[in-house]
Amino acid sequence: MSETGSHNDVSENLPSEHGARGGDVAVKSDPFANPGLPPHEHRRQDIDEKAARHSERVVAGLFMLSMLGTLGFIASFVVFPIDKIIYVFPIGHVSALNFSLGLTLGVALFAIGAGAVHWARTLMSDEEVADERHRVDADDELKENVRQQWITGAKESGFGRRKLIRNTMFGALTLVPLSGVVILRDLGPLPEKKLDHTLWTRGKVLVNTNTDKPLRPEDVIVGSLTFARPEGLEEAQEDFQEQIAKAALMIVRLKPEDIKDKRERDWAHEGIVAFSKICTHVGCPISLYEQQTHHVLCPCHQSTFDLSDGARVLFGPAGHPLPQLRISVNGDGNLIALGDFEEPVGPAFWERS
């Protein structure tokens, strides 16, 4: 009996298996409970105005560095010639202009980003706030709540009272776009009136580009296509490519009765017409001629012009007809120009007259 009682006493003092599990369930009744936000820890700048002013000066300094980077970017276009090469370790030999543009623009953009990040991390409010998910079609109460949050956020950012940050930020954001304007200068000088005039003047002889001899009417037969350049323009000249790109001519002889346009007929000589060789789409040289239809085709984008009807556009992306050059014959029997083209040659441009 005593042995059995001892056993019962021990059993009563030990928790049952069911009771132990029941206790665990009570302790862990909701394993997915919201733990809540951790206690907010104030930053040094939140409790020390001296530290806050220091952060303000750092942010303003980064914005000022950005302004200096942009000014350096603009100055690089003036200081460095395009052909200047420098040695930069460990890159090697690079263009001084490209290196300085990349370095200064990188500094300008990086400093703006670094300033904004430092401003947000040290001076703007970092207190976490929990909010319920809401419908996309917000009601008036929610809209007003968002508006108040915006106002509070703007106030806590210090944008209004930290004038040093605000003014330097405006300066940096104003100067950076100027670098994009300066880049446009790299497209080259403005054409001004250079595209309005060529080397053709009254009395200038037409020279065959293949034979380098003056063109005579008997040299141009019906159905042929001949290319010409102004007398005095030689390939050895430094600006030959620039000048021939505007003055190149194609000469075609048509039967006078096949010419439909009156002005074209008046500007021709015995059916010989002279048109610019430069396509009015993107400036490709035209060289394909169809004798039966009197059409010329640009090989680049298939713009088609009718040389019997004022070189008007029949097909393709070209925007206007090929300019015609008025020609005649001088005392030596050579074909000559009676002036320059009356409209700019080549593609259209925004200040086209």
TrEMBL record:
Record's bilayer topology term: Multi-pass membrane protein
Record localization: Cell membrane
Transmembrane spans: 58-82, 94-117, 164-184
Organism: Actinacidiphila polyblastidii
All copies of domain Rieske, residue ranges: 241-336
Cofactor: [2Fe-2S] cluster
Predominant subcellular localization, coarse grouping: membrane
Comp. bias regions, Basic and acidic residues: 39-48
Domain of life: Bacteria
Spans annotated as Disordered: 1-48
Function per UniProt: Iron-sulfur subunit of the cytochrome bc1 complex, an essential component of the respiratory electron transport chain required for ATP synthesis. The bc1 complex catalyzes the oxidation of menaquinol and the reduction of cytochrome c in the respiratory chain. The bc1 complex operates through a Q-cycle mechanism that couples electron transfer to generation of the proton gradient that drives ATP synthesis.
Pfam families reported for this sequence: QcrA_N (PF19297), Rieske (PF00355)
Record protein name field: Cytochrome bc1 complex Rieske iron-sulfur subunit
InterPro entries referenced in this protein's UniProt entry, alphabetically: QcrA_N (IPR045603), Rieske_2Fe-2S (IPR017941), Rieske_2Fe-2S_sf (IPR036922), Rieske_Fe-S_prot (IPR014349), Rieske_Fe-S_prot_C (IPR005805)
Keywords on record: 2Fe-2S, Cell membrane, Disulfide bond, Electron transport, Iron, Iron-sulfur, Membrane, Metal-binding, Oxidoreductase, Respiratory chain, Transmembrane, Transmembrane helix, Transport
Similarity annotation: Belongs to the Rieske iron-sulfur protein family.
Bias-annotated ranges (Polar residues): 1-14
